[in-house]
Amino acid sequence: MHLLTLFLALLIDRVLGDPDWLWKRVRHPVVLFGGAVSLADGWLNKTDNSLYEKRRDGFVAIAGLLVLAAFAGLAVVWVCSLFGPFGFLLQAVIASVFLAQKSLIDHVATVSEGLTSGGLEGGRRAVSMIVGRDPNSLDESGVCRAAIESLAENSSDGVIAPAFWFVVAGLPGLFAYKMLNTADSMIGHMNEKYRDFGRASAKLDDVANWIPARLTGLLLIAAGALVVGGERARQAFGGMMRDARLHRSPNAGWPESAMAGLTGLALAGPRIYNGDIANEPMLNGSGRRDAGVTDIDASIRIVAAMFTVFAGLIGLLALV
Questions:
Q1: How far apart are CA 37 and CA 57, in angstroms?
Q2: Which of 82, 84, 150, 250 is spaced 20 to 30 A from 109 at the CA atom?
Q3: Is residue 230 scored above 80 in pLDDT?
């Protein structure tokens, strides 16, 4: 039933995404998760605590948040069970809220549209909504590469990983994963305030995404074979196996290096965050660096095909 429910959730999300008319009137659950993280941060993250106390309190915070999210998931499952045979359909609708196929593609497509209609400034405005790096430091090629990297990485964090944890543990697993991912994005930073307090959240997020990130890379290669051809996909697989571990993240390098090979681009590399330069190696370093709008569009086609392949696999497994 988890597989059938997930298949329906993927279909619902692919068609409807995150409708603005709804979330303008009702708070998105992830916003509520973010509020819980902020409360835990305010209560437990004290600047005068020792390193040990910050790490201890950070672990207590994320453990409590995960338990809270899992119990919320159990409560929702119980409520759904009151609707009898329609309960699994209600669970599918709820699960679809935590997936991001359509919204991810729409956000990245906005960067392509921004560059086309508004030039470099339009592209910078659009890409600033989906990446953390300084948009003013990016030329047109940098804007395109940033959008493609975000698309590849978030196809794992926003779709494959939550789907994986739903298969593992249903709505409790899905809720717990989204709480963890939200906490990592808010407090899992390597700065003075969160380096120690957010350490447990960042490490647990790495563990939770270990399998989904590698699965996403393989799914991108499989979908890429349909979009750009088997030979390019074979080369991209070799590049992924070679370059994925070069990324500063133990997980993001897998989907990003797969996308680099499929598009023929050199991705990642040096970038600027809040005025600081992060010198990182290139993925598919021999590839092109002059990315353009057509490369964004090509990456969207690959990811859209990947989502279709993934949903098809889930549907097939549900039938089996």
A1: 13
A2: 250
A3: yes
Q: Which of 212, 225, 226, 221 is nearest to 240 (CA)?
A: 221
C-beta pairs of 107-111 under 8 Å, 24+ apart in sequence: 108/147, 108/148, 108/150, 108/151, 108/296, 108/299, 108/300, 109/296, 109/300, 111/143, 111/144, 111/147, 111/296
What length is written for the chain? 320
Q: How do residues 54-73 score in pLDDT, each as one tens digit?
A: 999 999 999 999 999 999 99
Cα 103 to Cα 179: distance, rounded to the nearest angstrom: 19
pLDDT greater than 60 at residue 121: yes
The string of DSSP codes covering 209-244 is THHHHHHHHHHHHHHHHHHT-HHHHHHHHHHHHHHG
Contacts of 101 (CB under 8 A, 6+ apart): 10, 13, 14, 17, 158, 159, 307
In whole angstroms, what is the distance from residue 141 CA to residue 147 CA? 10
DSSP secondary structure string, the chain?
A: -HHHHHHHHHHHHHHH-S-HHHHTTS--HHHHHHHHHHHHHHHH--TTS-HHHHHHHHHHHHHHHHHHHHHHHHHHHHHHHTTGGGHHHHHHHHHHHT--HHHHHHHHHHHHHHHHHHHHHHHHHHHTTT--S-GGG--HHHHHHHHHHHHHHHHIIIIIHHHHHHHHHHHHHHHHHHHHHHHHHHH--SSTTTTTTTHHHHHHHHHHTHHHHHHHHHHHHHHHHHHT-HHHHHHHHHHHHHHGGGSSSTTTHHHHHHHHHHHTB-EE-SEEETTEEE--PEETTTSB----HHHHHHHHHHHHHHHHHHHHHHHHHHH-
Q: pTM to 2 decimals?
A: 0.95
